[in-house]
Amino acid sequence: MLHRAWQQYGRWCRWSSPFIHLLTLTVVTFGVLAPLICHRLLHSYFYLRRWHLNPMSQEFLEQNQQEGQAALHYFEKLQTPNASEASGSDAFQPLLLVTIITVQRRNDFHYVLQVASHFHRLLQKCGARCQSHRILLCNVESDPSSHQDVKLLSSFFPMVSRDKTGETPDPRVNQFEKEKQDYIFCLEQSLLVYSPEYVLIVEDDAVPEEDIFAVLQHLLLARFSKPYLRDALYFKLYHPERLQRYFNPEPMRILEWLGLGMFLGPVLNRVYSWATGRPSLSWPIILFFALYSMALSELVGRHYMLELRRLAPTLYNIVPVTECCTPAMLFSAPSARRALGYLKGMHCRQGFAKDIALYSLLRTKGENAYVVEPNLVRHVGMYSSLRINDNPKLL
Q: Is the pLDDT reported for residue 89 higher than 70?
């Protein structure tokens, strides 16, 4: 009996044994290669926060400051359009209206100039396919004349302002309620000024990705024709990267994670069988590679897996929405009117900001909403208009 057990142990420990192969692969992958390759990936479990967070945050701020200056020079060099183009007075109903909601922030980063310059350049690049798109600025600074960047942009884009100059502040209106009221104002004005089919409300620190109009064109003209999407209350175009992991209470992500393992398990098993000359079907090895690929994708970061979907607009994913954040929100005209009616009857406060208020409507009003993956905007504003932070970090 002991002799037979020793023989079995010897077979397991030979270099030709699958056990040794897979054990070595696991140790090399998770103990050597992945930590070496991924230690600077911000949204990976292998990220060495103590080493990299401070210098990367400083580098990001410096680069963002340079991009703000570049955006300033972009508009300084840009030829001023004629009065009718700048005011948006053409009697035209756009398919898509991009409304940039802005408030005065630190002048050295020129956040709204970065967002507006990217949208302007991408619209020019899009050409005839985007002739039915328009851009509107919504200035919600309490004293609109104090917002210097908007003064510059008013020569290039139509603008609406929520002027509260001279009004006595309402003590019941906290900063979260004001943000909600500003959002309502901008959404209402978007519908009144242009009557668009769709409104994209973008906050002034959400810089669009290069493919945003190609993806939106595909979504608006093809994907949103499905009844369950057509009636959605809103579509989020951004979700924080740190919250995009598989290991999450959201059922859709767990199913996606299991599907990844079920797909890669047999594929990697065939590769292993070809490399070692073993039989092509082994359920224990398939199970190992399924768990191996699931663990690797989670530890490296789902965010980086999602980036592969940028290869084509048809690969973008639309999944049920999650709670956080409103840097870029897409509404159809009917859903925008419903959202306005709901929000006017709600009061926001700390712990119940407008993003949570919108999400709560899905349960209380029986609405549906979705998020587009990967993100179609980059959130670059490390200095918040709601929370004071003199030493911001990327995480």
A: no
